[in-house]
Amino acid sequence: MTREAVIAAAVRTAMGKRNGGLAGIHPADLSGAVLNALVERAGVDPETVDDVIWGCVSQIGDQSSNIGRYAVLAAGWPESIPGTTVNRACGSSQQALEFAVQAVLSGQQDVVVVGGVEVMSRVPLGSARASGMPYGPQVLGRYQDFSFNQGISAEKIAQKWGFTRARLDAYAALSHERAAAAQDSGVFEEQIVPVVGVTADEGVRRGTSVETLAKLRPSFLEDDGVIHAGNSSQISDGAAALLVTTPDRARELGLTPLVRHRAAAVVGSDPVLMLTGPIPATEKVLGKAGVALSEVGVFEVNEAFAPVPLAWLAETGADPELVNPLGGAIALGHPLGASGAVLMTRMVHHMRERGIRYGLQTMCEGGGTANATLVELVG
Questions:
Q1: Where is the Thiolase C-terminal domain (predicted)?
Q2: Calpha distance 127→107 (Å, rounded)
Q3: Residue 222 pLDDT greater than 90, yes or no
Q4: Mean pLDDT of 357-373
Q5: Are residues 16 and 198 in contact, defined by beta-carbon separation less than 8 angstroms?
Q6: Is 134 a residue whose pLDDT tops 90?
Q7: d(CA 181, CA 193)
Q8: Residue 350 catalytic?
């Protein structure tokens, strides 16, 4: 009999802004909070968990030495439960999900908890590279000494697809508008784990408009740059967790699965453009599943920079109304190693609320890779 993998529970913290409400929490403790909330809300004993796979990008300082293992210990779970840490750049916790699905489908494990954390207030972006050059002379020589700067890559994408600053800023303003509407409707409340009194995403800026964003200076190209802080993802703190198991094991544990994992894909892409991988990843995952783009009712395309979802839309022809309908990382934040699990948590709860059959999540990643995951509503 063919095994299936399901996501049976999904929780996240609110996204804390840089030096905001979550900045004082150690990443292991923040991870422990979502681990405990996950099993408490699911009503399962941590003893049933075979492994914890945790995404984290800047594995240095407070996030060093296998933060996945220390998350388990911070949660107070039995010492017998292992934990490991994954880094596929911004897709780290989405990749953690795929590793868990592979373990469950193979029959090697039955219950795996996945997720991720990034407290960027404590471990700044790029801190893991501060003391060295990870690319090496051969890589630099292969790509004409390109700096592998994601902001420059975003500028190149905007140039290639012809996106003006006004177009990018309009998209950014829409992200804030959608996120504010989602907050006001209360759709995030069930999925958020309160930590130190932080119960709402802190990055949403109500009233953001093309006019207000026009006052911001370009961040990467001084003269004619179109990328700036307002149309880029926010530096954030946060964590999220998902419970992956089989339908049979879920039944034994008294769980009602949220979604069924249908297919996954990971691709490599041009490391100079760097952030266009979601385009081929989407095509690949839909092909593997035998599902048409038109059958998908919601897409989460990570808003690393505004040109990323806009280029994806231009190439796929997807309905813009179905893409990041609750806002994205421009408004809600992008806590790197946690973002894959955060997006999946938002998406599966949205699917349950709206009765949406298929949801597709895709994430661009530093170095020119991308993950895509297709899930199907259960019941």
A1: 256-376
A2: 38
A3: no
A4: 98
A5: yes
A6: no
A7: 20
A8: no
Tell me the pTM. Answer: 0.97
Catalytic residue among 176, 349, 350, 364: 364
Q: Which two tokens stand for residue 283?
A: 């095509």
Annotated catalytic residue 364? yes
- List phi, psi (to 5°) of 197: 80, 0
Query: Under DSSP, is residue 112 helix (H, G, I), strand (E, B) or coil?
Result: strand
Name the catalytic one among 176, 228, 334, 350.
Answer: 334
* 330-355 per-position pLDDT tens digit: 999 999 999 999 999 999 999 999 99
Give the separation between CA 53 and CA 23, rounded to whole angstroms.
23
Q: How far is CA 2 from CA 107, 236, 342, 354, in A?
A: 10, 40, 29, 29
Q: According to DSSP H, which parts of 125-216 are helical? A: 136-142, 150-161, 165-185, 210-213
Q: Which residues contact 249 (CB under 8 A, 6 or more apart)?
A: 110, 111
- Give the pLDDT score at 135: 86
The predicted structure's pLDDT at residue 216: 97
Q: In which residue are the tokens 């405990």 written?
A: 36
What's the distance, Cα to Cα, between the start and end of the chain in Å?
A: 20
* Sign of the Cα pseudo-torsion (203, 209, 210, 211, in order): negative
**What is the rounded CA–CA span in Å between residue 305 and residue 64?**
27
Question: Is 56 a residue of the active site?
Answer: no
Query: What DSSP letter does each residue of 8-52 carry, written as one string?
Result: EEEEEEPPEETTSTTTTS-HHHHHHHHHHHHHHHHT--GGG--EE
Catalytic residue among 56, 90, 176, 349: 90
Query: Amino acid letter at 8?
Result: A
| Gap between the Cα atoms of 171 and 301, Å rounded | 13
Please, are residues 278 and 301 in contact by the beta-carbon 8 Å criterion?
A: yes
CA distances to 174, 261, 313, 327 from 357, in Å: 25, 12, 21, 20
Rg from Cα positions in the chain? 19
Counts for the chain of helices (H) and strands (E), in that order: 12, 11
Q: Which two tokens stand for residue 367?
A: 């170095």
Tracing tokens 């048409």 back to the chain, one arrives at: 292
